[in-house]
Amino acid sequence: MIVPILRRTAIFVISVLVASVVVFLFMVVLPGDPAQVALGVNATPELVEQTRQEFGLDRPLISQYLDWMGGILSGDFGRSYVTREAIGPQLLDRLGVTLWLVGGGVLVALLISVPLGTIAAVRHRRPSGAVVSGVSQLGMAVPAFLAGILLVQIFAVRLGWLPSGGWTPPVRDPAEWLRGMILPVLSLGLVQGAVVTRYVRSSVLDVLGEDYLRTARSKGLRPGQALVRHGLRNAAVPVVTVLGLQLATLLVGAVVVERVFVLPGLGSMLLDSVSSRDLLAVQGIVLVLVVGVLLVNFLVDVLYAVLDPRLSAPRRS
């Protein structure tokens, strides 16, 4: 198992390097001079040139890339073209908010999808199974931002149980932080839970028809016991794949949800940086998001080897 994990680690590192080059070049080819944008249209050519020299924009692209990546590897994402403030500390603070949101969304999605998907599969010939499938199908059609607006309308505006938005750091007031995160997390988790429920149902249905599960039942195990002991682990392999893909969707969905609930996360910082054309900040944020997606894919590959060691076993000719 060690060799496959090392091979996947090497692929992950190479993918990150390639992604960093793509992100850097993509930002470079965008029209407009970052120094001119930062100073405004009334800036003199001399001041623009001085700003270009200050940020190293007058140097060759390879030097700019190496300095940028060298700084990132040491935790320095540079200074904003617009505010002249360090990007790294801001990005770290915003990343914490987004991780709480996405992590809570994943937890809610799993708590919903695993039991409901299993029920829908086990009772697929009964009305209860059809109801679960229908509700999950309906949930897949609801965007996360619309779910957030509906939750705010019900639980914040009409009932007044929860705040409609805002952010309170957990170290300052854990209770208020928890109240403020419930609706954003639910808006992400409910929609993604509906999507994953469909895949859990399909995966469990495939497992229910396997010979080893019938053998376990013939040895005296009840259907539920046989499924828990021998079926769920095999059913988890395709579900892990889907969950890894949905994590990328959660990161994208978090951008809009953060706007709906006025959360100072990475998505809000990205939108603000794009609107002000702060390209260096956009570069750093996009790279962090891309590395996050690649890291999720890497962890999914490692989970494959844990859940099913046959996937990492060497092939025999």
TrEMBL record:
Annotated transmembrane regions: 12-30, 99-122, 134-157, 177-196, 235-261, 281-307
Main location: membrane
Protein known as: Peptide/nickel transport system permease protein
Superkingdom assignment: Bacteria
UniProt record similarity statement: Belongs to the binding-protein-dependent transport system permease family.
Pfam families found in the cross-reference section: BPD_transp_1, BPD_transp_1_N
Record flagged with keyword Transmembrane: yes
Localization terms from the record: Cell membrane
Membrane topology field: Multi-pass membrane protein
Domain ABC transmembrane type-1: 95-300
Alphabetized UniProt keyword annotations: Cell membrane, Membrane, Transmembrane, Transmembrane helix, Transport
GO BP term (any one): transmembrane transport
An example Gene Ontology CC term for this record: plasma membrane
Source organism phylogeny: Bacteria, Bacillati, Actinomycetota, Actinomycetes, Pseudonocardiales
Entry keyword Transmembrane helix: yes
